[in-house]
Design goal:
Keywords: Cell membrane, G-protein coupled receptor, Membrane, Pheromone response, Receptor, Transducer, Transmembrane, Transmembrane helix. This is Vomeronasal type-1 receptor. InterPro entries: Vmron_rcpt_1 (IPR004072). It is a multi-pass membrane protein. It contains four helices and no strands. It has about 120 residues and is mainly α. The longest helix is centred in the middle third of the chain and has 32 residues, at about 45-75.
């Protein structure tokens, strides 16, 4: 099972890296179309590549933390409420955190908040 998970994570890492490479290549092709006023802003291709890599790293962090915590809770002699609650939080961590990462990365949504 661990070998299967590692294989799929390798495929996910390769796909994310390839997507970032394609976005960088696209950015290089359209670089000549940008004017001088746009040079100091981060292009959308680079933001997308950074978001893809950030989400992949976030997923891997939560996955491996969950894996190690599950092994610890499984092989520990006593099951403590805090350990089991922390494991449940880590199980849901990626699903809870990833939308906020995407919202934070999108500059248009931050303009909608009142007071900014």
């Amino acid at each position: 099972m661990v070998l299967r998970d590692a294989g799929f994570q390798g495929v996910m890492g390769w796909a994310s890296g390839y997507m970032a490479f394609l976005l960088h290549k696209h950015h290089q092709h359209v670089l000549y179309l940008q004017t001088s006023k746009l040079l100091y802003r981060t292009p959308p291709e680079m933001k997308a590549a950074q978001s893809v890599l950030l989400l992949m790293l976030c997923f891997l962090l939560f996955y491996w933390t969950d894996c190690f915590m599950t092994l610890y809770v499984t092989f520990s002699l006593e099951k403590h409420f805090i350990e089991v609650s922390a494991l449940e939080f880590v199980d849901l961590g990626y699903a809870i955190l990833s939308p906020f990462v995407l919202i934070h990365r999108d500059g248009h949504l931050t303009k909608c908040w009142p007071g900014q």
